Amino acid sequence: MVLLAAVALTISGCSQPSTKIDVPVAQMLRGRTMGTTYVVKFMTTADGPSSEEVEKAVNSVLESVNAQMSTYIASSEISRFNTSQSTDWFAVSSETAEVAQLAKDIHSQTSGAFDITVAPLVDLWGFGPSRNQAGPPSESRIEELLERSSDQLEIRLSPPALRKQSPQLRIDMSAIAKGHGVDRIAEKLNELGVSSYFVEVGGEIRAAGSKEQGTPWRAGIERPLEDGRDLMTAVDLADDALATSGNYRNFYLHKGAKYWHTIDPRT
Asked: What are the respective helix, strand and coil percentages of the chain, to the nearest 5?
């Protein structure tokens, strides 16, 4: 992580008592989480939390979300639910249950275009934890997995729990967990009294306030090129959220054809 030092400036005069000048200073945290990268930029002031306090809070949130919803950590709630063959209620945290319910609501609103029970299909196409990218699967195998849909996932908010109607049902919350993590970090920053920040996890962004001298936070949108990092445009953000995704880097080649990680769970 890169952490810039905070600076507090004071000026004093010979005949006047010293006066403290509260100058907001930009800080930045960055690292890896949820199989991708994250950046947290925020403005600190003399009477606000220290950069160390903010870093500790951000790390705590990310560790919590990973422990709940990661498909790469074997001990996470979702990983343990996926490996369980039981069709009884499986206890989870209230956050996991609430995010799963939100995902199921979005599934209904999008006529099935968003579906967290897509996990077996993600693995089948070679984009899950196994990364078995041997080529496109057979139509018969795809049809078999399409039968395991959100209709077979039950969610209970109190006490929080998930239940699968089929022992083979597995879920992948990657498409919604990153945005949830961003919201959690933003909420924690608000609690700490940080009013100006820019939070980004794997293309999911939330911003509040502004940078130095009222300059807006900016999110760069890259040109969709495999080997380039040139910006196509930039978007100013203030008290806004933005979600981005691209399939121009996460893909594999098989017999000259490209297969991307964007999957329609209906087909």
From this structure: 30, 25, 40
Higher pLDDT, 243 or 87: 87
pLDDT surpassing 60 at residue 226? yes
How does strand 257-260 pair with strand 251-254? antiparallel
Of the candidates 201, 42, 175, 29, which has an alpha carbon nearest to the alpha carbon of residue 116? 175
Handedness of CA 161, 164, 168, 171 (dihedral sign): negative
Tokens 């196509």 correspond to: 232
Give residue-wise pLDDT tens across range 145-203.
777 666 889 999 999 999 999 999 999 998 999 999 999 999 999 999 999 999 999 99
pTM of the model: 0.81
> Does residue 21 contact residue 165 with C-beta atoms inside 8 Å?
no
Check whether 56 has a pLDDT greater than 80.
yes
Judge contact between 54 and 42, C-beta under 8 A.
yes
Distance separating alpha carbons of residues 14 and 238, to the nearest angstrom: 41
Do residues 90 and 81 touch, judged by C-beta distance below 8 A?
A: yes
**Which residue is it, tokens 């939330």?**
206
Domains of the chain, earliest start first: 9-69+177-243 (3.10.520.10), 77-172+254-260 (1.10.3980.10)
